[in-house]
Q: What sequence folds into this?
């Protein structure tokens, strides 16, 4: 399981970065006219797989954002994994966001579910139930249940999750990664006080999504 400290460039991106850099260097030496677009691709790969450390807000009961991106849903809905009424907060990640996923709270993993599915635009509501996804049921230290769901997007083709039932996570701990555009849904208890609104830009670990009662 990956946690901080870790390389500032995610390990998941090392093969992609190596290939793109080698191709760009080769073009620079042998086909200089082609080197500029290849260096642009290498730079894109570098920025996509960046994975900077983040400061954890000292807020009691805080549920932190598990991903960088934009809030695309804050709604009362049925949690399909725990079969309960819940508040769903969804973070949409575009290709320019950091795609490392972090634990939103301190707690113990109760169960992990993986579902194959479609790859529709992750900005759409139906992506939460129709796309390929991986759900983690986390029980916080005070007994509150949180469901965190990694959802593949239109061009995302690989969800990586490094935890299993029984693992203990701390707030901000790295637990997964999604390649190339996606979303993360967080299902919270109804008495949680949500601190974000539609359209807000959030940062993994450093943005408080909600505060638990």
A:
């Amino acid at each position: 399981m990956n946690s901080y400290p870790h390389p500032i460039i995610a390990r998941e991106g090392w093969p992609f970065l190596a290939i793109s850099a080698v191709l760009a260097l080769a073009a620079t030496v042998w086909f200089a006219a082609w080197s500029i677009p290849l260096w642009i691709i290498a730079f894109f790969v570098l920025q996509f797989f960046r994975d900077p450390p983040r400061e954890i807000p000292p807020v009691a009961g805080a549920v932190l954002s598990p991903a960088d991106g934009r809030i695309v849903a804050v709604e009362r809905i049925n949690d399909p994994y725990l079969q309960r009424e819940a508040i769903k907060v969804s973070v949409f990640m575009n290709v320019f966001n950091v795609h490392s996923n972090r634990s939103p709270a301190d707690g113990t993993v109760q169960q992990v579910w993986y579902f194959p599915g479609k790859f529709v635009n992750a900005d759409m509501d139906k992506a939460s139930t129709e796309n390929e996804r991986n759900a983690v049921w986390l029980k916080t230290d005070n007994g509150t249940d949180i469901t965190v769901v990694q959802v593949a997007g239109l061009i995302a083709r690989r969800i990586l999750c490094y935890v299993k039932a029984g693992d203990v996570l701390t707030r901000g701990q790295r637990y997964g990664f999604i390649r190339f555009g996606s979303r993360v849904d967080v299902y919270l208890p109804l008495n949680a006080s949500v601190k974000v609104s539609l359209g807000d830009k959030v940062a993994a670990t450093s943005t408080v999504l909600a505060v638990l009662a």
User: Anything to note?
Assistant: The first strand starts at residue 62 and ends at 64. Residues 11-48 form one domain. The first helix runs from residue 14 to 30. The radius of gyration is 18 Å.
